[in-house]
Amino acid sequence: MLAPCALLLLVATPRGHEQHRPLLRRAPVGAATMTLPSALRKTLLWVLALTLLWLVLIRGYADYLARPLPARALLLNAQQPEALIKTAEAALIARQMDEAERLAQLVLRKQPLEGRALRILAAVAEARGNRPRALLLMHAAAAASPRDTLAQFWLALNALADRDLNAALQRLDRLLRFQPELADDVFPILATIALNPVGSRALAKWLAVDPNWRFDFLRRLIIESPSSSDINRLLRAIVLAGGVVHEAELEVLAARLLRTRNWPALRKLVTSASVGSEDTALLYDGAFDEVLRNRLRGWVIARVAGADVLISKEPVADNNSLRLLFYDRRVAFKHVSQILLLTPGHYRLSGRARLIDLRAAQGLTWTLSCAESEVLLGKTERFVGTSDWRYFEVGFSVLSADCGAQQLRLVLDARIAAEQQVSGEAWFDDLAVELQAPIESVPEAGNAQQGADSA
After folding, report:
1. 22, 105, 114, 125: which could join 134 in a potential S-S bond, CB 3.0 to 4.6 Å?
2. How far apart are CA 350 and CA 394, in angstroms?
3. What phi and psi, each to the nearest 5 degrees, are found at residue 385?
4. What is the pLDDT of residue 261?
5. Is 248 helix (H, G, I), strand (E, B) or coil?
6. Could you write out the DSSP letters of every residue in 403-435?
């Protein structure tokens, strides 16, 4: 019986085209020739076309059903590879090892490099206690299908069980580089390694080269770690491995220390971040020259309706200053601030101000308060009206160890909503905080908890 395609070619060949095929031997004159009636030939063509179409549709529908309904796909095509894989995985979960092995081997007969089938055979070998065979098959599965998450995880966990940190980190690094959506699954494993004294040194070598998953991992680790001392050990290990701790990571750590009110650790962090810079002032960037250079320390300037806050050049001198423009609207203004880390002592805040027709019931003022309790430590004179550049200053004291951080803020001094109506312009420059006399007898805040949560 002729194959369908061969029969299709035979039926479809027109009778009058023999002369165009000189290589074919002509039938002897008078010999009988086989011809098919035109109607029969058309019928055969339709039958063959419908048969081929049916086969294509059935196979295609089986491919479509392979993932969601593998059992139904196998009814249509008993050798559909994806359906066989899904069915084998289900059998593996149900502990039907023989069935899982049989289905995986069926796949490998047609597709010898199907990594998932190799992974299923490895899992079967492991369940039967044959770990050497399981390792061999799982390595082959990972090589054949590098993006197979289960194979990579299995190899990483087995490497950890064998105390081969480097091999485990190599697998986890590969997963995070090429499949970042797996970060939530990988994080608990990496966090356990990172918070271990030995593991942190091994992990630091991978973090030192700045992989694309580093910041998200460190940010989450800093936020969720129970102790900042473990975080600092990891950061030191990154530096020792030739890497750099980035400013964005230091900001996350500073936010954690600020949230936990660990002022000694936060002060130490800020001091270490300033090593090598010329700025050792108690107030950062009081001249408003490099507002965005170091966000770990610096001004926080927020937007507010009814006012513009700018860093502008002075009209005459080529010098940056803080400039505020108010448009005769009610503004609850308190949108320029900076966190200070002053130890107990007596201080002086000074600066320069320039006012252009600034109209407000109470005017603007710089206030100093404890960051955690908002206890007022001091406030400057009220700025209102018009004046050329002039100096101002105010003394204040940090007397309590509980006031480990302070907030310097420029506010519109208003007691009621009607006093928030403000118009005009104000300029400020050359702000500075100077220590007048330390208070040595007050113990440092947070010393008692440094053993458990130190920097």
Report:
1. 125
2. 7
3. 95, -145
4. 81
5. helix
6. --SEEEEEEE--SSGGGGEEEEEEEEEEEEEEE
Q: What are the pLDDT digits (tens) for 1-13?
A: 334 444 333 334 4
What's the CA gap between 317 and 338, in Å, rounded? 26
Instruction: Give the per-residue pLDDT at 71.
Output: 67
Q: Give strand pairing partners of 312.
A: 321
Q: Which tokens sit at 324?
A: 């505020």
Torsion of the alpha carbons at 15, 16, 22 and 26, rounded to the nearest 10: 60
What sign does the dihedral 362-365-368-371 (CA atoms) show? positive
In a domain, 27, yes or no: no
Indicate the helix (H) or strand (E) that contains 436: strand 421-438
Query: Per DSSP, what are the bridge partners of residue 367?
Result: 379, 409
Q: Are residues 98 and 213 in the same domain?
A: no
Low-confidence winner among 25-29, 35-39, 178-182, 271-275 (lowest mean pLDDT): 25-29
Mean pLDDT of 162-166: 90
Does one domain contain both 133 and 173? no
453, part of any domain: no
Q: Is 148 helix (H, G, I), strand (E, B) or coil?
A: coil
For 33-88, the pLDDT digits (tens) are 556 677 776 676 666 666 665 555 555 655 656 566 666 666 666 667 777 778 77
Provide DSSP, 193-238.
Answer: HHTSHHHHHHHHHHHTT--TTHHHHHHHHHHH-S-HHHHHHHHHHH
**pLDDT of 316-328, one tens digit each?**
777 889 999 999 9
* Distances, alpha carbon 370 to alpha carbons 279, 398, 399, in Å: 23, 9, 11
- Please calculate the CA angle 335-339-340 and round it to the nearest 5 degrees: 140
Same domain flag for 184 and 304:
no
Has residue 1 been placed in a domain?
no
Banded pLDDT at 258 (limits 50, 70, 90): confident
The number of angstroms, rounded, from the C-alpha of 319 to the middle of its chain's C-alpha atoms is 39
Place of tokens 């009209």: 315
Q: Which two structure tokens, joined as six digits, stand for 73?
A: 């796909």
For 431, the domain range is 300-438
Using 50, 70 and 90 to split pLDDT, how confident is the model at 335? very high
Residue 131 lies in a domain: yes
Cβ atoms of 282 and 435 within 8 Å: the answer is yes
By C-alpha distance, which of 292, 293, 271 is closest to 280? 271
Structure tokens at 45: 């063509």
* Number of domains composing the chain: 3
The 10s digit of each residue's pLDDT in 409-419 is 999 998 888 88
Give yes or no: residues 131 and 150 share one domain. Answer: no
CB 293 within 8 A of CB 273: no
* Residues 158 and 251 occupy one common structural domain: yes
